[in-house]
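Design a sequence for this backbone.
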């Protein structure tokens, strides 16, 4: 088994999940961490038994004793912090979105030749998503004509994940000055990948509306101006002409973190749900189409993004979703944002 020495870039909340997941994979060692915050870095190293810590990417590259990097920095830092590792021939898993604009994302994809690169679209780990995509590829529902997709979060109406109005770990996600692209960039990317991956087609046109709601007096809390979008609605046309709607919001009271997709083909339909951490797949196929009867479909477990990244490095699986996919999604997000700035005008991608 090929050993893999992993460096973790960024040691915030999400980095804890990366460290635990990678440490559980046989043959993977946590070689080092990087963070400009010395105290936070030291605590992270102690918690995960990581011997080496660095204050900068340059320091880590000068040391060089690692094979791969998982980039868990804030969105706006992905581009600048990833490129030096790619230039040094290191494999990289990057948190989503790949970048905050298409030009930077495409530069990252171009620079990834010769190494394994993946973007952490975490809902690719959902069994119902993978099973639905397989069924579509096998022609189970025929030619796709229509779809409806939604990503529903309620964290601006309840404190289940913490108090968004008091904690910097949440507040930055509401402020464009702190690198946030709002709900469109944060969770919209997930539902757009969810829908188009299962459909097996890219979007070729988009119309989008975005809305930011008043959440504090003067629209500010401390140093954070709360101007990032809170809700997004989109209309998409897929490559074969199929039409669909996509919605994403942080104001879906009663839905902590739920994704849904209804996909309709000429010979059948699929319904994919991920709710309360569990995924479900239903289908209307064959003779059931005549009566509108739906049946549950069994969905086998799938490997995590962390396992797939290491497998790809070892030549045991595909690097999917890769940086090229991340760049394609960023082009779609950019066009959606442009459309919203033009009153929802339909734009080609």
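Sequence:
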């Amino acid at each position: 088994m090929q050993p893999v020495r992993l460096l973790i870039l960024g040691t915030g909340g999400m980095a804890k999940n990366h460290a635990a997941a990678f440490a559980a994979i046989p043959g993977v060692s946590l070689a080092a961490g990087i963070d400009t915050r010395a105290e936070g870095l030291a605590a992270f190293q102690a918690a995960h038994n990581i011997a080496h810590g660095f204050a900068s990417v340059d320091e880590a590259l000068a040391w060089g004793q690692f094979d791969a990097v998982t980039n868990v920095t804030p969105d706006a830092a992905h581009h600048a912090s990833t490129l030096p590792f790619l230039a040094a021939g290191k494999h990289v898993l990057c948190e989503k979105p790949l970048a905050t604009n298409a030009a930077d994302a495409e530069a990252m994809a171009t620079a990834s030749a010769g190494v394994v690169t993946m973007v952490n679209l975490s809902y690719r780990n959902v069994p119902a998503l993978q099973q639905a995509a397989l069924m579509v590829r096998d022609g189970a529902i025929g030619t796709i004509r229509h779809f409806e997709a939604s990503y529903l979060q309620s964290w601006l109406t309840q404190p289940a994940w913490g108090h968004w109005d008091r904690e910097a770990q949440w507040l930055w996600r509401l402020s464009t000055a702190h690198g946030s692209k709002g709900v469109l960039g944060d969770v919209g990317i997930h539902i757009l990948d969810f829908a188009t991956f299962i459909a097996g087609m890219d979007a070729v046109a988009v119309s989008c509306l975005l809305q930011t709601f008043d959440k504090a007096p003067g629209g500010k809390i401390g140093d954070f101006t709360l101007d990032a979008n809170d809700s997004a609605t989109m209309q998409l046309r897929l490559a074969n002409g199929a039409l669909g709607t996509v919605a994403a919001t942080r104001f879906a009271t009663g839905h902590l973190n739920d994704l849904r997709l209804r996909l309709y083909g000429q010979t059948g339909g699929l319904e994919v749900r991920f709710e309360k951490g569990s995924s479900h797949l239903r289908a209307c196929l064959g003779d059931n189409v005549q009566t509108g009867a739906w049946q549950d479909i069994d969905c086998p477990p799938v490997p995590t993004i962390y396992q797939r990244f290491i497998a790809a490095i070892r030549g045991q699986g595909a690097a999917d979703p890769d940086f090229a996919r991340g760049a394609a999604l960023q082009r779609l997000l950019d066009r959606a944002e442009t459309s919203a700035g033009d009153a929802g005008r339909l734009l080609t991608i």
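The chain has a mean pLDDT of 96.
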